[in-house]
Amino acid sequence: MAGIYIHIPFCKTRCTYCDFYTGTNETQMDAFVDALCAEARIRKDEIPEQVKTVYFGGGTPSRLRQEHFDKIFDALQHHYFIAPEVEITVEANPDDLSEAYVEMLSQLPVNRLSIGIQSFDDEELKFLSRRHSAQQAIDTVKRCQQHGFGNISIDLMYGLPQQTEEIWQYNLAQAIALDIPHISSYHLIYEEKTKMYRLLQAGRIKPIGEEVSTTMFTMLIDRLTSHGYIHYEISAFGKEGYFSRHNSSYWKNEKYLGLGPAAHSFDGDNRSLNVPSLIRYIRGIESGILNRETEYLSLSEKYNETVLTGLRTMWGLDLRELITRFGDEFYRYCLQNARKYLDRNLLKTEDDRLKLTRDGIFISDGIMSDLMWVG
After folding, report:
1. Partners of 158 in the β-ladder
2. What whole-number distance in Å separates Cα of residue 239 and Cα of residue 116?
3. How far is CA 83 from CA 51, 53, 77, 153, 309, in A?
4. In this structure, how many other beta carbons lie within 10 angstroms of the beta carbon of residue 208?
5. Are strands 317-318 and 112-118 parallel, antiparallel or unpaired?
6. Would you tell me how many other CB atoms lie within 10 Å of the CB of residue 345?
7. How far is Cα 341 from Cα 347, in angstroms, rounded to an integer?
């Protein structure tokens, strides 16, 4: 089984915190979709297995029109073996999800929506350059539910400058009240080349303190788990039966094909990256050339990725797989470096799996770093 990720590199406007490859000029949308479908045809032999997940990410996939979706789904169904129970996710912005647009999506094979809400506070939304209001976000979720979309995820962001514990508590309460089965929540990161980073460098904003960040993360875990959400990955919370199957495949090192400019692929051993340029991507496809680079992973790099992805999840790191795939030396190295965290109850072993404890989640970056192979 494998997955397909489709990168839609268009946004109506640019958010202050975003460093993904995307642009606001949509005049090339038709040419992009044609190139995307051609790439799907050219690369069909890379995924002979059943496709169990399709994920439209971006950018803003809800900038696509119905004719674009129709072309893409026709190409996928023609060139790939799509599983009957496939999970098909479309990322969307609340302001794109009008009554007519949601009705259109409901007529497509799409069965999961990931809505980029980020906050239910209007001042925070303005600061982030989001195009929707808090009320629009609430109305949008209800509209999607009324059109039969039960499998909905939303994104929430915490750790914003000026964000208080009260605002964060309110954001969580609003999400819970909407009865959304999946929530992804991320701490603000000041990525270079973003407007947010430039504001930080100019001293116009100041990041919140580590103690407040920790408190907000604690609130996130406590509030959601007390309302039936399972904390199955560091940034992801889902009710039973509503985990993101596509994202889970990343964390389990399963194969996936990335279509579109700047999209990543993983064939089980090595990674590849499509050119992060819309113009070069389209021109390359039109001339029959796949404009991409391949990264050949060493054994130690594969081990490090396995540690990173495994420990992020509630399933943990499979120690039997570790010794089978990487041998005795890597296995001993992992356990030797894990010992101090096991002794401090920051890691635990269950059913031959190494897992973060509740306390360990708060210093997960440091633990993962210590278990990675250096040399």
Report:
1. 187
2. 19
3. 6, 8, 10, 22, 25
4. 18
5. unpaired
6. 11
7. 5
Task: Give dist(CA 229, CA 16) in Å, integer.
Answer: 30
Of 122, 104, 116, give the one whose Cα is nearest residue 12. Answer: 116
Fold of 299-371: Arc Repressor Mutant, subunit A (1.10.10)
Task: Write out the E strands in the chain.
Answer: 2-8, 50-58, 81-92, 112-118, 152-158, 182-187, 230-233, 236-238, 256-259, 264-266, 271-274, 292-295, 317-318, 347-350, 353-356
Q: Is 115 within 8 Å of 161 (Cβ atoms)?
A: no
CB of 234 closer than 8 Å to CB of 312 = yes
Q: Rounded to 10 degrees, what is the CA torsion of 259, 32, 7, 85? A: -70
Domain 2-251: top CATH class: alpha beta
Query: Cα dihedral sign for 35, 36, 39, 44?
Result: negative
pLDDT exceeds cutoff 80 at 375: no
CA–CA gap between residue 236 and residue 243 (Å, rounded): 8
Distance CA 369, CA 367 (A): 5
Q: Where are the domains of the chain?
A: 2-251, 299-371
| Contact status, residue 208 vs residue 161, Cβ threshold 8 Å | yes
Distances (CA, A) of 89 to 20, 92, 111, 123, 247: 18, 10, 6, 29, 11
240, amino acid identity: E
Crossing angle of helices 165-177 and 210-225, in 10° steps, is: 20
pLDDT digits (tens, 9 = 90+) for 203-261: 999 999 999 999 999 999 999 999 999 999 999 999 999 999 999 999 888 999 999 99
Whether pLDDT at 30 is above 80? yes
Q: Which two tokens stand for residue 118?
A: 């980020």
Q: Which of 104, 134, 102, 135 is nearest to 118 (CA)?
A: 134
